[in-house]
Specification:
One of its GO terms (molecular function) is acetylalkylglycerol acetylhydrolase activity. The protein is an alpha/beta fold. It has 17 helices and 10 strands. The protein is about 45% helix and about 15% strand. Helix 2 crosses helix 3 (about 60-75), helix 4 (about 125-140) packs parallel to helix 17 (about 395-410) and helix 5 (about 160-170) crosses helix 7. The radius of gyration is 21 Å and the shape is globular. The N and C termini lie far apart (about 65 Å).
């Protein structure tokens, strides 16, 4: 009995130490965010342990744990009014959400949606994305195609990009649009986080293909990851330890995506791969000059981290670091000029905030009509967390703004 009185306070103190993180005062639902982050960290550590024992890849374990928890949340989703079917578009699995037909039999709007998760986690079939796509289909009276691209470690760049591009091009075929009663002139391509990366890359490629008869009217990017050139932008410095995506975790996702050696993580963190003596990177530097692309409220007092001498071998080993199919922010101005009307949602408490803001500014400079929708109290990944117990006020706030923009512009 006496031992229990000692162990219980010790366990409580350890739990509080593990869960607690200092957060900016403006973050919504701070304790709920701490608990979400602690749960995610615990799952990651369990995955790493199983990986260390050589029983399975830790990302496969992490995704299994996410999907196991997801089974509970699936029960709370009702799709009575939305028809949900699985299909294969040019060899790529997709999930299609169709609203009920209207009496006037008019054509519907269409949205291609690409889920996030660091190119490694989640699925078009998880509750968070089923719920989002169902609500989008219902609110917009649109056919929503959610792409189930292959994940790390079974697939690496450029396979995720190719999956997203093939499925999108299949949907854009006039006969496929006719099958789903979709108006060819009212189609958007969208995605969050890594899905925003794929959506931007796919949209850029579609703009270059002259034989396409149907093109997206809009693109909508939710806290997209768009560059691996500079891991010391103001948002990367400011939010380096923020849940749910601290800087070292984002760098690891890039290394997983490119099948790179994780011994290079520190070199990437200090921008050795884009130092001034790395010739391959020089021509891209002007396309990602955050000192001119970001507003003062984002730059604050942060200083650029530019190494005079670096490690040129990193680019040689991972040329995808400068491949615009993986890093859409590095696209040339001619490509950006061809992009459709664009929506970019960013969150203050997110390492990727400046990726989205810089892309919005470059598109605007290229003559594209852009809406930058910035949320001061939100964090990375927030928009999909609308189901109990991971329901955040920030999720409803951002989702409402996103769907409102689509409704007004699509």
């Amino acid at each position: 009995m006496r031992a229990a009185w000692v162990l219980l306070p010790a366990l409580a103190a350890f739990s509080a130490y593990y869960v607690y993180l200092p957060l900016p005062g403006a973050v919504t639902d701070p304790w709920k965010l701490m608990l979400l982050d602690a749960t995610f960290r615990a799952a990651q550590q369990m995955g790493h342990l199983i990986h260390y024992l050589r029983l399975s890849h830790h990302l496969i374990v992490l995704n299994y744990l996410i999907c196991t928890f997801d089974l509970y949340q699936l029960e709370s989703i009702s799709s009575e009014d939305i028809k949900v079917t699985d299909a294969v578009f040019d060899g790529v699995e997709v999930r299609v959400f169709e609203p009920p037909a209207r009496g006037d039999e008019s054509l519907k709007r269409g949205v291609v949606y690409i889920h996030g998760g660091g190119w490694a986690l989640a699925s078009a079939r998880t509750s968070l994305y089923i719920n989002l796509c169902r609500i989008m289909a219902d609110s917009l009276k649109a056919v929503v195609v959610s792409i189930e691209y292959r994940l790390i470690p079974k697939a690496r760049f450029p396979e995720q990009y190719h999956d997203a591009l093939r499925a999108t091009k299949h949907f854009l075929q006039p006969e496929v649009l006719a099958e789903y009663s979709v108006d060819p002139s009212r189609i958007a391509i969208s995605g969050d986080s890594a899905g925003g990366n794929l959506a931007a890359a796919v949209c850029q490629q579609l703009s270059k293909e002259e034989d396409l008869t149907v093109r997206p009217k809009l693109q909508a990017l939710i806290y997209p990851v768009l560059q691996a050139f500079d891991f010391n932008t103001p948002s990367y410095q400011q939010n380096r330890n923020m849940p749910v995506l601290p800087r070292h975790v984002m760098i690891n996702y890039w290394l997983y995506y490119f099948n790179g050696n994780h011994d290079l993580a520190h070199a990437l963190l200090i921008n050795n791969h884009t130092a001034l003596d790395v010739g391959q990177a020089l021509s891209f530097r002007g396309r990602l000059n955050w000192t001119s692309l970001l507003p003062p409220s984002f730059k604050k007092d942060y200083k650029p981290v530019v190494q005079a001498t670096g490690t040129a071998e990193i680019i040689q080993k991972m040329p995808a670091l400068l491949d615009v199919r993986a890093v859409p922010l590095l696209a040339d101005n001619a490509t950006l000029q061809r992009q459709p009307k664009t929506y970019v949602l960013t969150c203050e408490n997110d390492v990727l905030r400046d990726d989205g803001a810089m892309y919005a500014k470059r598109l605007e400079n290229a003559g594209v009509h852009v809406t930058l929708d910035h949320f001061h109290n939100c964090f990375h990944g927030c928009m999909i967390f609308t189901l109990w117990p991971t329901d955040f006020s920030a999720a409803f706030q951002t989702r409402s703004s996103y769907i409102k923009w689509l409704d007004e512009n699509l």
